[in-house]
Amino acid sequence: MPLSVKHILGARDLTRKDIETILTSAESFCELSRRPIKKAPALRGKTVVNLFFEPSTRTRTSFEIAGKRLSADVINISGSTSSAVKGENLIDSARVLEAMNPDILIIRHSDSGAPHLISKHVKCRIINAGDGSHEHPTQALLDLLTLQQNKGRLEGLTVAIVGDIANSRVARSNIFAMKTMGMKVRVAAPPTMIPDQMESMGVEVFHNLEDALVDVDAVMMLRIQSERQEGSPYPNLREYSNLFCLTQEKLKRSRKDMVIIHPGPVNRGVEIALDVMQGPRSIILNQVTNGVAVRMALMYLLLGGNDEVDH
């Protein structure tokens, strides 16, 4: 089943059918990643360029592994080694790369809208690997896959997203994707970290973590993104942590089957306590594993893959 979009620029663009197709394909690639030989020839002869203008370990590595497991030629370019440091603008950089005929450009940039801008000037497929405070669609898709595997469904689940909602591209993409899939979303944070339009998006707003955790199926803890904040939205980090760090004490009113996810990287003791992060409810490492499968599925589907995974 082909996707309704040419590029993966945001979760907001994806239909329910798109998301179901991506998750179904990703499940097949999860199985491939468990084989002794983790390789399929689906993208043999294709070229994937990771163009990362922002630091990243897990997302860039995840895309690189995904491309290589599908036998694509994968090229990694970071902002510090690109011609951007010599003054070349973003569009010219993209056009130069396209002249070398890549099939997919994967772009992470600190400016919101950078992947959208590039998509208007090149012919190859674009995947947004995170743009500013805007969207991080592949993270949202791997979060959905992880919850679906754990809960057996998505429709009707209630998820609380906790932390720096205002600056989180992960939160924004997850809200779009979760609402599309019929899930209920809550956000919890100090008022200064929640945008005004949240309730108009059909999202419940809480300013008390314990209240937000009552009767939810999953909680997503977010990292404090100090690099995106203009001034501090809270008096100090200790006060924020006292109120919103997920601890065993704060979990007492939650359901026993509630699971914990986190997009990473984790600030231990700030947004989540170490014993909670490593406890039985945490499925954080499952998210990392599923990230490779979701990115394999996206590359495969964007390039029109119709073959069986087991080639």
TrEMBL record:
Pathway: Pyrimidine metabolism; UMP biosynthesis via de novo pathway; (S)-dihydroorotate from bicarbonate: step 2/3. Residues 155-302 form the Aspartate/ornithine carbamoyltransferase Asp/Orn-binding domain. This is Aspartate carbamoyltransferase. Coiled coil: none annotated. Its EC number is 2.1.3.2. Catalyzes the condensation of carbamoyl phosphate and aspartate to form carbamoyl aspartate and inorganic phosphate, the committed step in the de novo pyrimidine nucleotide biosynthesis pathway. L-aspartate binds at residues 86, 169, 223. It catalyses: carbamoyl phosphate + L-aspartate = N-carbamoyl-L-aspartate + phosphate + H(+). Heterododecamer (2C3:3R2) of six catalytic PyrB chains organized as two trimers (C3), and six regulatory PyrI chains organized as three dimers (R2). PANTHER family: ASPARTATE CARBAMOYLTRANSFERASE, ORNITHINE CARBAMOYLTRANSFERASE, MITOCHONDRIAL. One of its GO terms (molecular function) is aspartate carbamoyltransferase activity. Belongs to the aspartate/ornithine carbamoyltransferase superfamily. ATCase family. Carbamoyl phosphate binds at residues 58-59, 108, 136, 139, 264-265.
